[in-house]
């Protein structure tokens, strides 16, 4: 690949991933029941995702607290990103492989998204004493459903190792779930 093509791939990936992050933050904030009065929540709820999600939610309602419309849009964005990246190299993948690759990309992205959020929330909770800080409050609401099963179970002395255990589980999920799915999708896309 040429240097220019590598730069173009990077820019396309960043653009698509930034949009996917908007939908994932919206999805995670809804699932964690983030406080709408938080200034950061007010940015996430009424802005970019809402006009796209509103018509889809009429057809595809939430399941429990999971916004299925946001999941669908995030998956479609990953699908479109893969299609654009394949078009750049002049290759048309098999549709089954493309669908599986988009699913694997989304799964890997969600696991990495939560891994970063748990890490940042852990750092903020160690460094900041202000529980009303908007970013810490929003991150706490987003990571709480993930950390709730571990709450109080891995406390030794004054240290809670629940976030560390959650990060290890997320890393294992990337290795044991997302990577094999990515390999399967690549094989299907290449037609082998």
Describe the structure.
Helices cover 74% and strands 2% of the residues. It has 192 residues and is mainly alpha-helical. The protein has a two-stranded antiparallel ribbon with strand order 1-2. The radius of gyration is 18 Å and the shape is globular.
Descriptors:
single chain, two-stranded antiparallel sheet, mainly alpha
Q: How are the strands of the largest sheet arranged?
A: 1-2
* Helix content, binned percent: over 70%
Per DSSP, what share of the residues sits in E-state strands of 2 or more residues? under 5%
What is the overall shape? globular
Order of helices and strands: HHHHHHEEH
Gyration radius over CA = 18 Å
By DSSP, the count of extended strands is 2
Total number of helical segments? 7
Which segments are poorly predicted (pLDDT under 50) over 5 or more consecutive residues? none
Largest sheet entry:
2 strands, antiparallel
Average pLDDT reading: 88
Structural class, judged by helices and strands?
mainly alpha
Distance between the termini: 23 Å
């Amino acid at each position: 690949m040429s240097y220019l093509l590598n730069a173009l791939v990077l820019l396309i990936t960043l653009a698509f991933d930034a949009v996917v992050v908007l939908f994932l933050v919206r999805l995670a904030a809804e699932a964690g029941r983030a406080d709408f009065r938080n200034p950061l929540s007010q940015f996430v709820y009424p802005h970019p995702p809402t006009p796209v999600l509103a018509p889809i939610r009429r057809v595809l309602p939430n399941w429990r607290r999971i916004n299925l419309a946001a999941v669908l849009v995030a998956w479609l964005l990953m699908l479109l990103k893969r299609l654009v990246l394949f078009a750049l190299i002049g290759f048309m993948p098999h549709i089954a492989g493309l669908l599986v690759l988009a699913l694997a990309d989304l799964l890997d992205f969600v696991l990495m998204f939560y891994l970063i959020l748990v890490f940042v929330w852990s750092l903020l909770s160690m460094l900041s004493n202000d529980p009303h800080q908007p970013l810490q409050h929003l991150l706490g609401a987003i990571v709480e459903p993930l950390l709730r099963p571990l709450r109080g179970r891995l406390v030794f002395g004054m240290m809670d190792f629940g976030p560390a255990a959650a990060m290890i589980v997320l890393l294992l999920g990337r290795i044991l779930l997302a990577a094999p799915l990515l390999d399967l999708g690549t094989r299907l896309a290449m037609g082998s």
